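tool_call: predict_structure(chain=1)
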Amino acid sequence: MPEITAAMVKRLRDETGAGMMDAKRALTEAAGDAEKAKDWLRAKGLSRAADKAGRETHEGRVHAYVHAAGGVATSGALVALQCESDFVAKTDDFKALAHEIALQVVGNSPQYVRREDVPAALVERERGVYREQVVDKPANIQDKIIEGKMNDFYAKVCLLDQPWIKEGKRKVGDLVTDAVAKLGENITVAGFARLQIGAPAIFAGTPAGAASSNGAAGNGAGAPAPE
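tool_result:
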């Protein structure tokens, strides 16, 4: 069992808003693994971020990132990141989160903000393909295999389910959750646009007139289905 230091506890508290004893217990249960400790806190309902989900987010900022190759801009992204107050929208932490998400959009080309935005027909089509792939497997493990394949599919096309390009063990959604805990407000990804020379444009986000209160997991409606 690794030693649980005061610095580890403080960092977990700063990132989740959990109490000192809860943070220490979570790290102990997770054998010192900070990400597993966060999952433990969320499962126990002790993460402050969970309390913020559902609050309306009518403030925020649009962040632009352009990637240049050989001195020529070849791809870029616009990200609309929302929060509860203009005060938080002006903080360096919020700006940094918007920038990281824009980098992710340019680097990994997500098609949707979150998995709930993927059209039902596309989800069922994917499930159908995976069902055909597991017909020769024992019946008692087929559903588990299919769900694993679906999770892999979502991790490819949904921004918040994608592994963070700078640290693959964390999802983009975890960055949002951590920011919610640190800044004390609900934060949602309202949408994004991705443009690249020689590639189709991608647009994903909240439909016109939709509420912006879907929690730290973000919100959005579909982009074109991936081919």
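agent: The chain has three domains: 6-46, 59-118+158-205, 120-153. Proceeding to next step.
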